Amino acid sequence: EIAKRAAVINGATQVALTKLDVLYPKCKGVRKYDDLPVEAKEFVMEIEQQVGVPVVLIGTGPDVLDIIDRRA
Q1: Fewest CB within 10 angstroms: 30, 37, 43, 61, which?
Q2: How far apart are CA 15 and CA 54, in angstroms?
Q3: pLDDT (tens digit, 9 = 90+) per residue, 1-43?
Q4: Cβ–Cβ < 8 Å for 51, 15
Q5: Which residues contact 36 (CB under 8 A, 6 or more apart)?
Q6: For position 52, which CATH number holds?
Q7: Which residue range is the domain that position 34 belongs to?
Q8: Torsion of CA 34, 35, 38, 39, to 10 degrees
Q9: Which pLDDT belongs to residue 62?
């Protein structure tokens, strides 16, 4: 609810989600959305539903390349 309100107030049209690898260790270093475990994808979809905007960047580890870019 707080995230949704922040998105509305700030006019967010998309969001980034970091530390997915902390919640789901199997995600560490994953760079393709299709390679994420089902439970991680469900979590991302839940965030999108709750916030009301798409999650376009997903951090999956400490390396600068440990990111999933869903923008294109």
Answers
A1: 37
A2: 6
A3: 899 999 999 999 999 999 999 999 999 999 999 999 999 999 9
A4: yes
A5: 20, 24, 27, 30, 44, 58, 68
A6: 3.90.170.10
A7: 2-69
A8: -120
A9: 97
Query: What pTM, to 2 d.p., does this model score?
Result: 0.92
pLDDT, position 1: 86
CA 65/CA 41 separation, integer angstroms: 19
Residue with tokens 């919640």: 23
As a whole number, mean pLDDT of residues 38-55 equals 98
State both tokens at 55. Answer: 């999650």
Whether residue 72 is predicted with pLDDT greater than 90 in this model: the reply is no
Q: Which two tokens stand for residue 29?
A: 């270093």
Print the SS3 string covering 3-64. HHHHHHHHCCCCEEECCHHHHCHHHCCCCCHHHCCHHHHHHHHHHHHHHCCCEEEEECCCCC
